[in-house]
Specification:
The complex is a heterodimer of chains A (517) and B (145). Chain A has 517 residues and is mainly α. In chain A, 76% of the residues lie in helices and 1% in strands. In chain A, strands 1-2 form a two-stranded antiparallel ribbon. In chain A, helix 5 packs across helix 16 and helix 12 crosses helix 19. Chain B is globular, with a radius of gyration of 16 Å. Chain B is 50% helix and 24% strand. Classes of the chains: A mainly alpha (517), B alpha/beta (145).
């Protein structure tokens, strides 16, 4: 405890003493971090985002969308057929009252959501709309709807093949269903693939679950306080995360877990207020979304550019097919693994179809994206990589400016929301990363401490580096998880289908009953 | 005919007074069975971290064990020692709702509870467990001050 207090004080002292004299040197530290980071991660990013030969279409985006489409068709549009049943499960209609006190479907869903709802919905959408135009929203919604089937598949397997230890604790996730599932089906290579997934999961935890969060939290804070070096934010964040994951100060995490859902509701509420005030523009905004989806409305790469951005950001936001949710959902108390699959399919719906769409609509309606009055197309910035915005904003600052155009003081609320979302996502991903780490290296205090320290160091790097390299590495690391996970899901989906048939027939026959509560 | 009385324990002095009152009442009846119940306040709609979820089953067992050994078992033992036919139960859930439900399920004809133990802000907003029980119970409720 004393050590943590000391570290915290040091971080605070560093932040406070970093005055103007130190600023110049600090900025150069940021630049150095950025250069080294971009050079180190470059080859990995290039491999993951390599386009199909002769096109500009990254193969990884197609990989995710094809998988989501295959699962949608293979399970007979499960996300629509069992939607009502999913809601009933979350409400607890099918939960045995004798299991009261165990992890409920709602709790498992809420925990998984707190890991996904966050900056992807605020900053990620702004990146998608800023580069791909309003049309990216259409593809994002479509990817969200299809992604529900991917989430269903992985979370069912997550519960089915989880490890239940003698002391009652549980551990689940792709590394477990890949190794156990492949063994059960007599397929070779399960162990190797599980190890590969774990490696990528650790990188994903350090990238999207950590650096991207720290980076965008810093961007949001500087919008209010003015420029200051990113490593200061990084050290403060790292100090708090360290206190929670190493120091075991659970009260910080518990408070965050309880505030974050309300921040989410507040965020959606504010978006609704802006949309209601500008209700006459909602039709126009949807018009832009549909027109942009098929024509691009002048964005870089045309409609394909919009499509790529929409799909990419949806996957980054809801993580369907990535495998992370399977880790979070596997703690639920249920005798039927497939019930958690049904519950998990609500995640992309809430995350992408509802929250991301809200953000996109507010950005479009606020007219932060500059339109050429003559052609009606969007104007590009100087480097022609993204749409020109009113104040040159991108990422989270674009969302902030969009909300500020409707509610002037909202950036302050958004800054708090962003910091809390970033923090809760970091805590969630530190857990996912740790599960992968312990799968690789085994459990043990020293081994776990090593990972936790690495995790905290990456927070500082993420806050100090500039958005470009961070977002590239974050996307690449998360998508690398999806490469292994989806490959394995193709082999394991027949297991889920057997579960689905069995459950659906028992539900129809009345063997699976509702409980009176 | 045997009358079954359910006693809601909460580990405080008011719970003890409820227990004493139930003993007094039961001693005046010819055939009476006592059921001592402790409800661990819990809701399926709370927000938890992934780590808490991982540990939840273990914690639940610990909570039940603690409630049993510290509150319910000593109460049941004391009742039995005094010559009553007694048993005990521990459950998780909303206190008022679960106590009422267990009473109905076990054929209880009345519930005896201590006066509220909640105070301050929570009580003002949501009412105490005792208030909620009195308002929604399906059987007569005696509140011991």
């Amino acid at each position: 405890m004393k050590n943590i207090s000391k570290l915290w004080l040091l971080a605070m002292a560093a932040a406070m003493t970093a005055g103007p004299l130190a600023a110049q040197e600090a900025v150069s530290i940021d630049q150095r971090v950025n250069e080294v980071f971009a050079n180190v991660t470059g080859p990995f990013v290039s491999l993951i985002f390599a386009p199909f030969p002769g096109t500009s279409f990254p193969w990884i985006v197609m990989w995710l969308v094809i998988a989501a489409s295959v699962f949608t068709v293979y399970f007979g549009f499960v996300q629509f057929r069992f939607f009502k049943h999913s809601i009933q499960l979350v409400k607890g209609d099918y939960s045995d009252p004798n299991d009261a006190g165990e992890v409920s479907h709602f709790q498992a869903l809420a925990t998984a959501l707190s890991g996904t709802v966050g900056l992807g919905n605020i900053a990620g959408v702004a990146v998608a709309v800023g580069i791909g135009g309003p049309g990216a929203t259409f593809w994002m919604i479509l990817a969200g709807l299809l992604g529900m089937a991917s989430k269903f598949t992985e979370c069912t397997l997550g519960v089915k093949y989880r490890n239940e230890y003698p002391d009652g604790t549980v551990s689940g996730g792709p590394m477990y269903y890949i190794s156990k599932g492949f063994d059960e089906l007599g397929l070779p290579g399960g162990k190797i693939l599980a190890v590969l997934f774990s490696v990528f999961c650790i990188l994903g935890a350090l990238g999207g679950g950590n650096m991207f969060q720290a980076n965008q939290a810093h961007a949001q804070i500087t919008q209010i306080t003015g420029e200051f070096p990113g490593w200061i934010t990084g050290i403060i964040f790292a100090g708090v995360v360290f206190a929670v994951i190493v120091g075991g100060i659970k009260s910080i995490a518990n408070v965050t877990e309880k505030i974050v859902p309300f921040m989410g509701i507040l965020y959606v509420g504010a978006a609704l207020v802006i949309l209601l005030v500008n209700y006459d523009m909602i039709g126009w905004a949807f018009g832009q979304i549909f027109a942009g989806a098929f024509t691009g409305l002048g964005v870089a790469g045309g409609f394909v550019g919009a499509l790529i951005q929409g799909f990419k950001r949806a996957a980054f936001s809801n993580e369907a097919g990535v495998g992370s949710a399977a880790i979070a959902h596997s703690a639920v108390k249920t005798k039927e693994p497939i019930t958690e699959g049904f519950v998990s399919l609500l995640e992309p719906l809430i995350d992408t179809v509802v929250i991301c769409t809200m953000t996109a609509l507010v950005i479009v309606i606020s007219q932060q994206l500059i339109i050429d009055p003559v052609t009606g197309n969007y104007l590009l910035n100087e480097s022609a990589t993204a749409i020109a915005t009113v104040d040159g904003n991108s990422g989270v600052s674009l969302t902030s400016a969009a909300f500020a155009s409707g509610i002037s003081w909202f950036p302050y609320v958004l800054a708090i929301a962003v910091v809390l979302f970033a923090f809760s996502t970091m805590i969630s991903w530190s857990y996912y990363g740790l599960k992968a780490w312990t799968y690789l290296f085994g459990e043990g205090k020293t081994k776990e401490l090593v990972f936790k320290i690495i995790f905290c160091v990456f927070i500082v790097i993420g806050a100090a580096a500039s958005l470009g390299p961070v977002i590239d590495f974050s996307d690449a690391a998360i998508f690398a998880m999806a490469v292994v996970n989806i490959f394995c899901l193709y082999f394991l989906m027949k297991v889920v289908k057997t579960e689905l048939f069995s459950y659906a027939s028992r539900l129809k026959s009345g063997e699976i009953k509702k409980f009176s509560h | 005919m045997t009358v079954k009385i359910v006693i809601g324990l909460d580990g405080t002095d008011t719970g003890e007074r409820a227990l004493a009152f139930a003993k007094d009442l039961a001693s005046r009846m010819e055939a009476c069975e006592l059921l001592a119940v402790y409800i661990i306040e819990w809701s399926p709609f709370t927000f938890q971290t992934a780590e808490e979820n991982e540990q939840r089953h273990k914690r639940r067992e610990e909570e039940i064990n603690l409630a049993r050994t510290r509150i319910v078992d000593p109460a049941v033992a004391a009742l039995k020692a005094a010559g009553f036919n007694a048993s005990g139960l521990v459950r998780h859930g909303d206190v008022a709702e679960t106590l009422n439900k267990l009473t109905v399920e076990n054929g209880g004809s009345q519930i005896i509870v201590g006066r509220t133990s909640a105070d301050g802000f929570t009580k003002r907003i949501f009412g105490s467990a005792t208030q909620n029980l009195v308002m929604h119970a399906d059987v007569p409720v005696t509140v011991v001050g």
